[in-house]
Amino acid sequence: MTKKKKQQKRGYPIGLIIGFESMRIIIWKVFSERVMLFKVRKLGRKFENAQKSHLYQFFEEVINDFRPLMKEGIKSILLVSPAKKDYASLFLNHINFHQKWLVLEKNPNSASFQILNGSVRDIEEVSFFVQTDKYVEAIGSVTEKETDRIIGTLEKRLNDIENGLVLYTIKEIEDLIYSGGKRKKKFKPLALIPEYILLTNSYIDEHHQKNRIQRLIQIAQNRQIITKIIDSEIPAGDRINQLGGIVCFLLAKSDFEKKIGQKIIDR
Hints:
The chain contains nine helices and nine strands. By secondary structure, the chain is α/β, with parallel strands linked by helices.
């Protein structure tokens, strides 16, 4: 009897790699433990031979491909194309001209982009690529920009005594997320919708109830609440650890919402 191949853990999501080739793009989802293929989109002709209208439509389709991933909180994106080719630059220029909201620094829904030379045509190439120094430096740069924006919003909530609601313990966050049910098919709308749930990898590693944390993360994701695991080694992770390693925040806009938030804190 043959043994079942042990499935490799994927870890937590970090960002995207979008690889540009002469007639196609390949989108890879990058996790802390491995890289997974997400989408291949064919251009149908070489970039050099494509008409502007064709490229416009193609780039819009690529943006629509990763837009749902941004809603999940994946907003660190590396654009990779072969040396001496401007495919990635053409795409970023398209974004700057037609989808500028994607790169506005003050927009909390924007993404962080960086261009690199290289090739990520298949799993062997992308697996090698993510071990290179240039990748490590680039992904560190874009993720730091992304998390700095999130921490900026968190600090606003912390300083807004009147309207900002910040929860610091797993029990408080569970009371909020589980208030509308724990089973996806029976979910009821939540009275308060978190902007983010943030955890550090060290908080998860050191917690004595890891299954409890994973359950919270899964239910929050099922509710389409952005949940991000942040590396403790970067400034954003250090800030989250100062607050206990886990934090959930939102803006309470009405007296009703403020009362609900206060009840959770007072339990």
